[in-house]
Amino acid sequence: MNQVLEFEKPIVHLKDKIVELKNISKDSDIDLTEEIDTLEKKLSILEDDIYSNLKPWNRVQVARHQARPTTLDYINYLFTDFIEFHGDRYFGDDEAIVSGIALYHDCPITVIGHQRGKKTKENIRRNFGMPHPEGYRKAIRHMKQAEKFHRPIVTFIDTKGAEPGKAAEERGQSEAIAYNLKEMAGLKVPIVCIVIGEGGSGGALALGVGNHVHMLENSTYSVISPEGAASILWKDATLSQKAAESMRITSYDLKEFDIIDEIIPEPKGGAHRDVEQQAKNIDKVLKQSIDSLSSLSSEQLLENRWQKFKKIGEISEAE
């Protein structure tokens, strides 16, 4: 299914018009080349105008696009010889988190990420990318393995949040997230985190304590969803667009606050328009991060990570 977002409808309408004129020209002797060229130029201008002026709520919609590339999509493009591991050795395997080892530019790494589905059955199987505690325990188990064998860690963040249900809480959801935060802070290997879709609350942060944290241009990172914030602030989830505007959840906002390190550009219209190009954009930033961090000692990596998170939320008052 080709999902069309609300703000993209004028673009789709113009594209349909161009296709219609091309079909008329093909099926008759009427030359519509000039009219088609005019509309194509108009389309290019319209796309530039719309995609270069996306509002926060538009970026939320792009981040949630059903065709947006997932962790496994990027693994296929960025890494070779990927071997996926399963299970937390306590309860079971959580398919909302993918974890394994691979080669990145011929160097061994550990790669971990949230994994949602593309279609309904897969989404149900992967719990829509919302991990249970066993998912986080699986992730930290493999992070510690990476530390043991001196492998850099790459995490891909893409979740609305951790599974909030009763069963997850009974199995220690809050403790699992807190444990990941503590343990990631002390790992003595390079950690690079990339928000590729939605970065929601503690469910995202449990994979997000890295030396470098990057975001795709149209991804979001926030303590709560716009719908959740609107429900709390105004008792009305339909005001989610207003909430998105005030929450400062886009990559540009977080770069301004110095919470993330780099904004990774996306193809016009979003990562789903050209997955291969998006992977190349990620590769460029990821390679620079791993190269720069690999030259640091264990003590320097820990200090780098400590200083990064220590300064978040700092304020200064003018005298």
TrEMBL record:
Looking up PROSITE patterns in the UniProt record yields:
COA_CT_CTER
User: Which reaction is catalysed here?
Assistant: N(6)-carboxybiotinyl-L-lysyl-[protein] + acetyl-CoA = N(6)-biotinyl-L-lysyl-[protein] + malonyl-CoA
Q: Which residues cross the membrane?
A: none
According to the UniProt entry, its GO molecular function terms are: acetyl-CoA carboxylase activity; ATP binding; carboxyl- or carbamoyltransferase activity
- Record organism: Pseudogracilibacillus auburnensis
What is the protein's major site of localization?
Answer: cytoplasm
- Function comment: Component of the acetyl coenzyme A carboxylase (ACC) complex. First, biotin carboxylase catalyzes the carboxylation of biotin on its carrier protein (BCCP) and then the CO(2) group is transferred by the carboxyltransferase to acetyl-CoA to form malonyl-CoA.
Descriptive protein name: Acetyl-coenzyme A carboxylase carboxyl transferase subunit alpha
Instruction: List localization entries.
Output: Cytoplasm
Sequence ranges assigned to domain CoA carboxyltransferase C-terminal in this UniProt record: 38-292
